[in-house]
Amino acid sequence: MRGLAMKTAVVTGGASGIGRAVAERLRSDGFRVAVIDLTPTDDGFGHVADVTDRAQVDAAVSAIREALGPILVLVNAAGVEGFKKFSNISFQEWSKVIDVNLNGSYWMAQACGRLMQPGSSIVNISSVLALTTAGLPQAAYSASKAGLIGLTRDLANQWTGRKGIRVNAIAPGFFPTEMSDQYEAGYLDSMRSRMLIPRVGRLEECAATLVWLVSPAAGYVTGQTIVVDGGVSIT
Asked: What is the number of structural domains in the chain?
């Protein structure tokens, strides 16, 4: 991360789970990290904002830019789950998942993309469930995370050459988060046969992958989805 110290990174959903792990790792590597989340954080640059609300997003991004300077990195990690059978999910429930997981990343990319300079980077946190099924009734969640992969490719196509902004995604497998805490007892044990590395991931492993993606070491990588799942998606 040499040369990136004291640069500004924005992390949505940074109050918990993968977003929090990413924010902590970027901060430890010398970034000035601003967290956007519905849950207040004890971070000095935390902003309570709803990523589905364009006005709140624009206000938060403007405040971060004014306080911390140019934004070099955007991490779209804000997300909600949708554990419900497709035949039972209401349109309102479906829309909420899509609105947070996909549309929130759209609003954030628009707001930050207008301000980012060449050499900047966006990373969208997708999911292994965008690539494979895992015995969970998560149609809305899977669709939203698959949409993020499509958004990632197209933004890279539009922005990398013209604006110098690299855009990539990470598709995490099973990690210890508030979402995985909601799995039924025994579910993760039942999935171990698909884990070529027979354990759940460590949050710092996902964060380390992201740090690589936004660093000069990945300077020739754009439009890609990096799968961090212990092999689940290929079994």
From this structure: 1
